[in-house]
Design brief:
38% strand, 3 helices, 6% helix, 410 residues, Neuraminidase, single chain, mainly beta
Length: 410
């Protein structure tokens, strides 16, 4: 199957043309000066440890080609490959599509009502670890009512493919509370852990009331949530049995997590959350930990003033593994554990919205030691990135005329 996918995608790339990446032939990585040369917004802030920001540029020296894999999309948000090799795509305006054998399906029917205002819509998706047996697809989306109250929600349904694809037996399995009058910061990435539990990333909903709730324990705003595949609560969650605390909470103190992936080496959930002006954070979301937002943060407010108390560290609150100031506006991330590009093995790829490039991080255990910017020649907002079954990278572009790009060795 993998050989067939490689052959098919290579043929499509040849048919569509491709853009050569700006890289030298593959070879030994060499560290240089940091890739970021602009002044930091938090000019008086110092990292908590060496290598927490602006590590040296470290090029993998991989010559790559970028080509269209899927076109005709509108603001694609999430990507997931099925065991058959078909690609499942969520579009922010509330559509789910299947791309298979070179053809894009009509919208999948059976989705629940979705609130499309602001940053809302159909968001991240994933498939069940036992998809080959049960056909279950999980998707995050924004709910809303006529009064303007909104929240993040997660549902699942059985995907039936074919000429008229549909979802059957759709069930709401998790709903964020409290609801707020905001159309921003929904989070929305879904990741299955090794133990079969579903990890859901959320946001603080941006407005002041939601922001402060990231530190409050009576709601699921600004949290990572952990549930069973059917929506029930795992008995080993950190706050099970604590009065007044939603039992689904896994970690707290997050701003707006739009990038998340499981580290194949450790099984930990790594995530990147949006900062304000500066302070995009790469975190390892561990059980019961507090990641500080908005009490501690790097960067400054959009208006140019300090965030909360203007501090970047406090006892009992976790430091980010890495942070960017200015931000990369991260969305979508993937660990590279395939064999197609040996020089990328062990790298972490993070999509970028505002700066319009793909960030590749070189890791040493749980530390970032090198950074490289790729796809600068594409010049498009990158909403999601995944590794395909053929070992190539697949990226969703956040455009009204959106597409899925395939990035493979030249």
């Amino acid at each position: 199957m993998t050989k067939l996918i490689i052959a098919a995608t290579a043929a499509l790339l040849a048919a569509c043309g491709g853009t050569a990446g700006q890289a030298q032939p593959e070879g030994r990585a060499v560290a240089g000066d940091p890739v970021e040369t602009r002044a930091a917004n938090g000019a008086d802030q110092a990292p908590a440890f060496a290598g927490q920001t602006r590590v040296p540029e470290m090029k993998a020296n991989v010559a790559y080609v970028v080509g269209d894999y899927v076109t005709g999309l509108e603001k694609p948000w999430g990507l997931a490959f099925l065991p058959s090799g078909a690609l499942l795509i969520s579009e922010k305006p509330g559509r789910l599509r299947v791309f298979e054998n070179g053809r894009l399906s009509p919208p999948v029917t059976g989705l629940p009502p979705i609130d499309l205002r602001g940053q809302g819509g159909l968001l991240g998706l994933t498939i069940d670890p036992a998809f080959a047996r049960n056909g279950l697809v999980y998707f995050a989306y924004s709910q809303g009512d006529a009064a303007g109250m909104t929240n993040t929600a997660v549902a699942r349904g059985k995907l039936v493919t074919g000429a008229a694809p549909r979802l059957e037996n759709v069930k709401l399995i998790w709903r964020q509370a409290p609801t707020l009058k905001s159309t921003m910061h929904y989070g929305g990435r879904l990741v299955f852990a090794r133990d079969g539990k579903l990890l859901v990333t959320t946001g603080d909903r941006s407005i002041p009331d939601g922001r402060m709730q990231a530190q409050r324990m009576d709601g699921a705003l600004g949290k990572v949530v952990r549930i069973n595949a059917d929506g029930s609560i795992p008995k080993d969650n950190p706050f099970v049995g604590r009065a007044g605390v939603p039992a689904e909470i896994w970690s707290i103190g997050h701003r707006n997590i739009q990038a998340a992936a499981l580290n194949p080496r450790t099984g930990d959930l790594w995530e990147v959350e949006h900062g304000t002006r500066g302070g995009d954070e790469l975190n390892i979301a561990r059980k019961g930990r507090d990641y500080g937002w908005p009490t501690i943060a790097y960067g400054i407010e959009y208006q140019g003033v300090p965030i909360t108390g203007g501090i970047t560290a406090k006892a009992g609150m976790e430091q980010p593994v890495y942070y960017w100031d200015p931000v990369i506006a991260a969305s979508g991330m993937a660990f590279y554990d395939a064999n197609l590009v040996p020089a990328w093995k062990g790298s972490l790829f993070v999509g970028g919205l505002a700066p319009k490039y793909l960030t590749r991080l070189t890791l040493d255990g749980d530390r970032v030691v090198g950074e490289e910017r790729l796809l600068t020649e594409v010049g498009e907002r990158l909403r999601d990135v995944i590794v395909g079954p053929d070992g190539a990278l697949y990226l969703a572009t956040d455009n009204d005329k959106g597409r899925v790009l395939r990035v493979a060795p030249k």
